[in-house]
Specification:
- 4 copies of one chain form a homotetramer.
- Chain A is mainly α and 190 residues long.
- Chain A has one domain.
- The first copy, chain A, is built from 10 helices and no strands.
- In chain A, helix 1 packs antiparallel against helix 3, helix 1 packs parallel to helix 4 and helix 4 runs antiparallel to helix 6.
- Chain A is globular and about 60 Å long.
- Chains in contact: A-B, A-D, B-C, C-D.
- At the A-B interface, helix 1, helix 4, helix 5 and helix 6 of A face helix 1 and helix 3 of B.
Chain lengths: 190, 190, 190, 190
């Protein structure tokens, strides 16, 4: 089985998710800046989710590039990841339109957490296919950054009902950590 | 004629179908869990259709991979399959928004049945192109699983008006059978 | 300049057009067959446009396959074709939702006509690039079928305000002629 | 790292953006020409944005074709460009639905300006990766046309609140300059 079509399909789905999110930025009826004001939180949500989908596409790209073979389990683990990613437009819009109210912020975090878990499952299955001593496994590394992100999402979900702004800060913080490729960060954590 | 562009086009259409379905998960106006409650059946429909589209992409992927040549008839048989798949977002949303009422559940089953028939036609045309003694025909096998699924959809459609929950159980049951690759199952049925 | 990315981009756009049309099949609020009745003309429009987009993808596929090089003029002639194709969801929905009223039927025909003209321009530019004595020009042939289709669309547009059903019959008739690959038809016309 | 998947992902996103814009052409309820009249400015906006996205796809295609390697910075600079392009459907619809009112025209210009800046950043990063004396840098040239376009957008943004029609003329004018490949234009400016 070739991995090319798996990559192409994943690229297609992520490209569509990242683009249709903009349809939730509903065009206001008025023609002044004040008519755009209620859209500001929706826009901030959009930026956050755009960055996250970019990170997932980026990491997915790198991980698949080092894989040599895919089987049925990989296909389904990949679809499982795409499923949680596909819910991003919904949780993004719900959070943005409700101006970062506690429960929508919590649901957004649950989706991030599920995406992270699904990504971990995909990485684990690919590692089993490639072998524990393979180049793939070595390149994947210890997964410290991934585990730390998962814990951060978990904390964000836990505090969302009491301090949604803390959760939001965690979402943006984790995104920044992935955006800025900083090898020292990993060393410090280790 | 090369099959590459046929695969790419099919991947694109299936990727778009699987993703725009999420647009039917309309963002509620309120910001509490109770506002999400009416969406639960829509979400369950979404999960079911996501799995089915994943199965079709997966099987389409495998079938085309073994094919060597495509002609005009294959192109149109493929578009015919994509047509019924493209109606999935509509029947999914109608079924979900009406909380699995009998007639929407029946229509969903008709779409599943038409997809299965269209897939069978595509397989038959590819077999004629490749030859009855080809590797393609041998790899395709006897089609027991496909025929059994078609019969199951037919039964589900027949009972939908009286017992929609039975139909729904059949839809999920068949999806599970395809999700879990179990060679023994085929042997038992044979 | 390679034609691969031109094909991939065109495939992507046509795949998206053919798929987002289904979003115009608005899910009705009721859960009975009678609630679906008003959607029947929208569905018929959808089927017609699905076939036309399939024909364009098919023909585009064949034409580009025989081309060897693309330049800036080809890129823009191709985008010009994609522009008119991209209006299909709009004219399809307007025609379907108004139950084939004269003016929407006329506009649908204008879009078909513009697509045909844009396709002809693309073919002419590719012929100029490849050369009049090239294999490409020979494979393209005399364009009898294309010219006849264009004339048919023109007639359909001319009579739409008086006899929209005649126009609609022409739209379906031309689609059938392209669907059924009949070499004798071309000979008879010649 | 291969550039193939970067190109494919960018093609996918641009193809989706250029196509979902048509969803903002809301189908009117009436079935006469007068019902279409309010859509004329939305349609003009659509044409303008379709051309701009075509130009970006075209230029992106050419620039990436000459690049040999991509790294993390290129991936993110590319996503940054796609982000501003992805806002096109929103600013297009806001401008069209408000019949070219000053503030929507200004916002449209800001989006064009940000796209141009993002494209410039991508070009700069690719130049650094390839080297200042590379074929890539030579092919890219002095960027006179790009800089002139950026200045034009800036002027359009500055005058939009007082003379939105001047801004609009600039948007169309710059698009035409890019549509018509005129080598003498560059020489004259130099």
């Amino acid at each position: 089985m070739h991995k090319g079509r798996l990559e192409a399909f994943s690229d297609g789905v992520i490209a569509i998710i990242i683009t249709i999110m903009v349809l939730e930025l509903r065009v206001p009826h008025g023609d002044t800046w004040s008519d755009l004001l209620p859209l500001v939180p929706v826009f901030i949500s959009y930026v956050l989710s755009f960055i996250y989908l970019g990170i997932y596409w980026n990491n997915h790209h790198h991980m698949l590039q080092r894989a040599h073979q895919v089987n049925g389990a990989v296909l389904w683990a990949n679809l499982h990841l795409l499923f949680w990613l596909s819910l991003t437009p919904f949780v993004t819009a719900w959070m943005g339109e409700n101006h970062f109210a506690p429960q929508p912020v919590l649901l957004y975090g649950i989706d991030l957490l599920m995406c992270a878990i699904a990504y971990g499952i995909l990485a684990a299955i690919l590692t089993r296919v490639e072998g524990k001593d393979s180049d793939f496994a070595r390149a994947l590394g210890s997964g410290v950054k991934e585990t730390a992100s998962g814990i951060a999402y978990f904390v964000a979900v836990a505090v969302a009902l009491f301090a949604p702004w803390v959760s939001l800060a965690i979402y943006f913080g984790v995104a920044l950590v992935w955006l800025i490729p900083d090898r020292r960060f990993e060393r410090v954590v280790q």
